[in-house]
TrEMBL record, chain A:
<dbReference type="Pfam" id="PF01315">
    <property type="entry name" value="Ald_Xan_dh_C"/>
</dbReference>
<feature type="domain" description="Aldehyde oxidase/xanthine dehydrogenase a/b hammerhead">
    <location>
        <begin position="38"/>
        <end position="138"/>
    </location>
</feature>
<dbReference type="InterPro" id="IPR037165">
    <property type="entry name" value="AldOxase/xan_DH_Mopterin-bd_sf"/>
</dbReference>
<dbReference type="InterPro" id="IPR046867">
    <property type="entry name" value="AldOxase/xan_DH_MoCoBD2"/>
</dbReference>
<dbReference type="InterPro" id="IPR036856">
    <property type="entry name" value="Ald_Oxase/Xan_DH_a/b_sf"/>
</dbReference>
<dbReference type="InterPro" id="IPR016208">
    <property type="entry name" value="Ald_Oxase/xanthine_DH-like"/>
</dbReference>
<dbReference type="Pfam" id="PF20256">
    <property type="entry name" value="MoCoBD_2"/>
</dbReference>
<dbReference type="InterPro" id="IPR008274">
    <property type="entry name" value="AldOxase/xan_DH_MoCoBD1"/>
</dbReference>
<dbReference type="InterPro" id="IPR000674">
    <property type="entry name" value="Ald_Oxase/Xan_DH_a/b"/>
</dbReference>
UniProtKB/TrEMBL annotation, chain B:
<dbReference type="InterPro" id="IPR002346">
    <property type="entry name" value="Mopterin_DH_FAD-bd"/>
</dbReference>
<dbReference type="InterPro" id="IPR016167">
    <property type="entry name" value="FAD-bd_PCMH_sub1"/>
</dbReference>
<dbReference type="InterPro" id="IPR016166">
    <property type="entry name" value="FAD-bd_PCMH"/>
</dbReference>
<dbReference type="Pfam" id="PF03450">
    <property type="entry name" value="CO_deh_flav_C"/>
</dbReference>
<dbReference type="InterPro" id="IPR005107">
    <property type="entry name" value="CO_DH_flav_C"/>
</dbReference>
<dbReference type="InterPro" id="IPR036318">
    <property type="entry name" value="FAD-bd_PCMH-like_sf"/>
</dbReference>
<dbReference type="InterPro" id="IPR016169">
    <property type="entry name" value="FAD-bd_PCMH_sub2"/>
</dbReference>
<dbReference type="InterPro" id="IPR051312">
    <property type="entry name" value="Diverse_Substr_Oxidored"/>
</dbReference>
<keyword id="KW-0274">FAD</keyword>
Length: 724, 322
């Protein structure tokens, strides 16, 4: 039986707080951890079906135009060109294949063919040396070189911001730039495809299997029920594996044509060329306040870029409408259509760079107005969502700011440039953290076995985030079992379709579906022992109600199966849902070389119920580390002549290394959000980035008096503002 | 990667003609995967007896196969040539240093991204093809000694310290000889594919350090993240004080030219003088007189200036007094 819930109203039951097993929230280790450290978790490229052939993608060497002719590949089994091959990755949750047809070229590095050979090395050699004749077209590759689109639905205006700026006691009007960024997940994109008659099985590094299945079926021109996707382990995604990409489609086509299984893995350089980049952004922020720091106006104008034929545009201003109050407001969202590689979701699309820049502007306003940056924020927190008047499902920004200021020692802050220790200026900075929250339809099946074990099945993925562990914990809590008695099976489209891992919604969405499936099982147990489900206590394999106490083996005959089906409902619109927090950083800036070292960093976060203290904390640590990267090190540089990514490996694209990351401190605020389903849990995978970089950049200003508005704040940008 | 034959040498006489040497492989293998280098035959030299650090006269003889991590940790190096230890430890990562050899490190090739990308024209990879770095992304390119044919830098750290230490390179093969490190790496001129003084058949057998000169040793490397990145600029300094004056000064610079850079005029200016900010500024002026930026690497000029001044302040004790 399926238990279905649409989240149309609040849930104040706190059910998980009243269960008896006591495992939910516990900092349990990752279930699959031992497999991973022992090399026994098989990632996409690691299966070894018999007779496996290896494909390597051939990439366009021009930014736009047509392939006229492709030469032979001596030593290879085949050079595959097929109109079904995709030009770039599908966006997250798309239901259709992305643009296909490898004869046309939209950006430099696009896949135009696949070379297949008996070994990877032979395939790569042939791919690298294939002769290709092109007809090259002149196209724009830099955002400044085109007149951007202004989609009417993405612009908004309330009151008169220009006037508010003129009349303001204090104001800020500045422009920031952030560069293209790459998720740079550890596992490069890879797939192995194998056909059996008209059915195909594809193992791939993918984050959202149920929509990936529709995309892939559409790309291959087959019925979805002929297709099985497997992604039991994914070595990080951060958005870069939300949609199917060139490698998995090409693997399926090649395997079909050759009648044998084919593996296609991207090289690290290909990942930089072919995975979605986070768009570079230009952001103009205008802020106006009165003498006591009450915001009277705020404007956020963003310019982002993408290919002409893709629907995604970095939602830079996503949190701007509801973070702070102000009567006069304006949001501008402009899209430059250029021929750099496809832009798409990278961890916390929108807020990662939008909140970061906005929070830098808030710091500048606080400085201009002579107000403490924390106070400026506290003064401008709205009661309800500005303009719409929608209530918040919960609101924890005030508490996160106040708690953070206390824990971090904010009151020790001194004016800019006052602390010099040897060659190093020392300073501290802070920022608010905000990220929108959402639920996505999700299903799961749970089977309770007579021997007191249970199995959870869903096509949800675990991209290194801890999904296996938290779903197991949830079922254990609801069914009264020790956590090690629950087996969790993920990453297989033969299981019920889940939300997938993306947009921070994975844990809460799939978690709610497991919760519902378990409620269904509890109902059946209650029926068997003749009580109300609400009166049933399940603990350590025993079922109790009133003075009845039975072991599950007495109650369960064979197995009991329940399915859970969660759908977002009215609360999606009736309430503004978000997660909240605050970021704090202390940095040292070298007065000579402009090198920045983060000395300590802290985050305070509210994300509803915490399902596992340890995996939740890890999400925040990773997010804050991304924040350090955004602030200090990460930039995917494009050649301005043809748009190609110049920094295409991990030696040149600088993600923070250990020495860049100081001890990070994470605190959670207790919260139960009633409007996000019975779990009362919200997303957390992205909150840790949103604003983290601003805390670092604001600390740089407090240390040495330099505002860096062109990210990242590498030494060259710092010395430009230091004394000679 | 192209198919290649592989031979493991057992002695210095056992190097097949025309074979490309592979030592730690940390640079060569990457280049082969990209087919930037596509040797038809490889000779592995790691079994040769070249992995010792031993005294030579008052100096030190460092075998070509001594690993970077071992060399950095060697007691005599740490005691007498700390600038070398520091330079080594500022390079790459622990894993790479465990594999990387002294000879291979000297021979590592530029990190110009256009050199690595075979879609892009490059005179170093393909003489006469043109240089696509000029007019492109030039963040890691040269400000000193570049040519219209190539603006790449020598990316290594160890050699910068060796340059300040007046090291020599010992070469085996058909014509055994020693070359001052100063003459080992070449400026690009119109032959950027010729990077060193090695001739076909040559093998580096050792690096020779002269007697230690004492003084303060500094290796200061500025990069885009705290570790595991190539130098934007680096300064190797060996400075001895004579009372309150600078007695001797050796300064070499990395990340700024096609070879470890050194300017005797800078050292002449400093020697015999009282340290002062004005003196250091003048030293930087002299060093940077011939500097020329290529687009976005403009910042290296002020950055090198500031890094030199900071290093001199530190090495002469001015910073500590401040
Ligand atoms: C990600 C990354 C980061 C790095 N960061 C830094 C850094 O910050 N600073 C730094 O200095 N270096 C850095 N390196 C470079 C590293 O130091 C070199 O790769 C290493 O020193 C090369 O030594 P090897 O023994 O592995 O050389 P190999 O790769 O084996 O050989 C390199 C070249 O030297 C030639 N060769 C080797 N031995 C001899 C010999 N005895 N005689 C003649 N020719 C020889 C080979 O033919 C080849 O052309 C980095 C490398 C990587 C991959
Ligand atoms: S700078 Fe030198 S290495 Fe780089 S592309 Fe030009 S010629 Fe090649």
């Amino acid at each position: 039986m399926t238990r279905h819930l649409r989240v149309d109203g609040p849930n104040h039951d706190d059910r998980l707080d009243h269960m008896a097993q006591g495992v939910i929230g516990q900092p349990l280790n990752r279930l699959e951890g031992p497999l991973k450290v022992a090399g026994r978790a098989t990632y996409a490229a690691e299966a070894r079906p018999r007779n496996l052939a290896y494909g390597v993608l051939v990439q366009a060497a021009i930014p736009a135009g047509k392939v006229l002719e492709i030469g032979d590949a001596p030593g290879a089994l085949a050079v595959i060109r097929d109109k079904r091959m995709v030009r770039f990755a599908a966006q997250g949750m798309a239901r259709k294949a992305p643009k296909s047809g490898p004869d046309g070229i939209d950006y430099m590095g696009q896949a135009i063919a696949l070379v297949v050979a008996d070994t990877f090395e032979a395939a790569r050699h042939a791919a690298q040396n294939l002769s290709v004749r092109y007809a090259r077209e002149d196209v724009p590759v830099n955002p400044e070189d085109v007149t951007p689109e202004l989609p009417p639905k993405k612009q908004s205006k309330t009151g008169d911001l220009d006037k508010a700026m003129q009349e303001a006691a204090f104001s800020v009007d500045q422009v920031w730039h952030t560069p293209s960024q790459m998720a740079a997940a550890m596992e490069p994109h890879a797939a192995i495809a194998e056909w059996d008659g008209d059915r195909v099985t594809i193992r791939a590094g993918l984050q959202m299997l149920s929509s990936n299945k529709e995309q892939m079926a559409d790309a291959l021109g087959i019925r979805p029920d002929k297709l099985r996707l497997l992604a039991p382990y994914v070595g990080g995604g951060f958005g870069s594996k939300l949609g199917i990409n060139a490698e998995s489609v090409a693997a399926a086509i090649a395997a079909q044509k050759l009648g044998r299984p084919v593996q296609v893995s991207m090289t690290r350089q290909q990942v930089f060329d072919l995975a979605h980049r986070r768009s570079e952004t230009r952001q103009r922020i205008r802020l106006a306040c009165d003498a006591d720091g009450t915001l009277t106006g705020l404007g956020h104008e963003a310019l982002v870029s993408n290919l002409p034929d893709d629907g995604f545009s970095e939602p830079v201003t996503q949190a701007t409408p509801f973070t702070y109050q102000a009567a006069h407001r304006q949001v501008v969202h402009a899209i430059a259509r250029i021929h750099r590689s496809c832009a798409g979701s990278v961890r916390a699309p929108g807020e990662a760079v939008g909140v970061t820049v906005f929070e830098c502007a808030m710091d500048e306003l606080a400085e201009a107005a002579g107000i403490d940056p924390v106070d400026l924020r506290l003064r401008n927190i709205p009661e309800a969502e500005p303009v719409t008047g929608r209530p918040f499902s919960s609101h924890k920004l005030t508490e996160a700011l106040q708690e953070g200021a206390k824990l971090f020692g904010w009151s020790d802050r001194r004016p800019a440039k006052e602390r010099l220790e040897g060659e190093w200026y020392i300073g501290i900075g802070m920022a608010s953290a905000v990220r929108v929250n959402q639920l996505v339809e999700s299903r799961a099946r749970v089977t309770l076995v007579q021997d007191g074990s249970a199995i959870v099945e869903t096509d949800m993925t675990d991209i290194g985030t801890g999904t296996y562990t938290i779903l197991g914990q949830l079922a254990a809590e609801m069914l009264g079992l020790p956590a090690d008695r629950v087996e969790v099976k993920l990453g297989d489209t033969q299981f019920p379709p889940a939300a997938g891992s993306g947009g921070s919604f994975g844990a809460a969405s799939s978690g709610n579906s497991v919760f519902l499936a378990c409620e269904e099982i509890r109902r059946q147990i209650a029926k068997a022992i003749g009580c109300d489900e609400g009166d049933l206590t399940l603990q350590d394999g025993m079922a109790r109600a009133g003075n009845v106490s039975k072991s599950l083996s007495e109650v369960v005959e064979g197995t009991i199966t329940g399915e859970g089906h969660l759908e977002p409902g009215k609360t999606e619109k009736s309430h503004r849902q978000a997660t909240w927090g605050s970021h704090w950083a202390e940095v040292a800036v070298n007065r000579w070389t402009g090198e920045v070292r983060v000395r300590r960093m802290m985050g305070v976060f509210a994300c509803g119920r915490v399902l596992n203290e340890k995996t939740a904390r890890s999400q925040c640590l990773g997010g804050m580390t991304f924040g350090i990267g955004i602030a200090l090190t990460e930039a995917m540089e494009h050649d301005r002549r043809d748009g190609h990514a110049v920094s295409r490996d991990l030696a040149e694209y600088h993600i923070p290394c250990h020495a860049d990351v100081p001890p990070l401190e994470v605190h959670f605020l207790q919260e139960r959000d009633a409007y996000v389903g019975p779990l009362q849990a919200k997303g957390l995978g992205e909150l840790g980035i949103c604003g983290a970089g601003a805390a670092v950049l604001n600390a740089i200003y407090n240390a040495c008096g330099v505002r860096v508005r062109e990210l990242p704040a590498t030494p060259d940008k710092i010395i430009a503002g230091l004394d000679p | 990667m192209r198919d290649f034959s592989f031979h493991r040498a057992t002695s210095l006489d056992d190097l097949p003609a025309g074979a490309t040497i592979i030592a730690g492989g940390t640079n060569l293998l990457d280049l082969m995967k990209h087919e930037v280098m596509a040797p038809g035959s490889l000779v592995d030299i790691t079994r040769l007896d070249l992995d010792r650090v031993e005294a030579e006269g008052q100096g030190l003889r460092i075998g070509a196969l001594v690993r970077n991590s071992d060399l950095a940790a060697h007691p005599a190096v740490r005691r007498d040539y700390p600038v070398l230890s520091r330079a080594l430890l500022a390079g790459a990562s622990g894993q790479l240093r465990n594999m990387a050899t002294t000879g291979g490190n000297l021979m590592q090739r530029t990190r110009c991204p256009y050199f690595y990308d075979r879609r892009m024209a490059c005179n170093k990879r393909d003489p006469g093809a043109g240089c696509s770095a000029i007019g492109g992304v030039t963040r890691n390119h040269a400000i000193l000694g570049a040519s219209p044919h190539c603006i790449a830098t020598y990316p290594g750290d160890m050699a910068v310290a060796l340059r300040a230490l007046d090291a020599e390179v010992e070469i085996g093969g058909p014509s055994p000889r020693r070359i001052p490190l100063a003459d080992f790496h070449k400026l690009p001129g119109d032959t950027p594919h010729v990077e060193t003084a090695l001739q076909p058949g040559d093998i580096i057998t050792a690096v020779i350090l002269p007697a230690p000169v004492g003084g303060q040793h500094r290796y200061r490397k500025v990069r885009d993240r705290a570790s595991y990145a190539f130098a934007l600029v680096s300064v190797a300094a060996v400075i001895g004080m004579d009372g309150s004056r600078i007695g001797h000064a050796a300064l070499a610079f990395g990340g700024v030219a096609h070879k470890p850079w050194r300017d005797p005029e800078v050292e002449r200016l400093l020697t015999g003088q009282e340290p002062s900010d004005a003196l250091f500024a003048e030293a930087a002026d002299i060093l940077l007189r011939p500097a020329q930026a290529h687009g976005e690497n403009q910042f290296k000029i002020p950055l090198l200036r500031r890094t030199l001044i900071a290093t001199l302040r530190d090495a002469t004790g001015m910073e500590a007094k401040a």
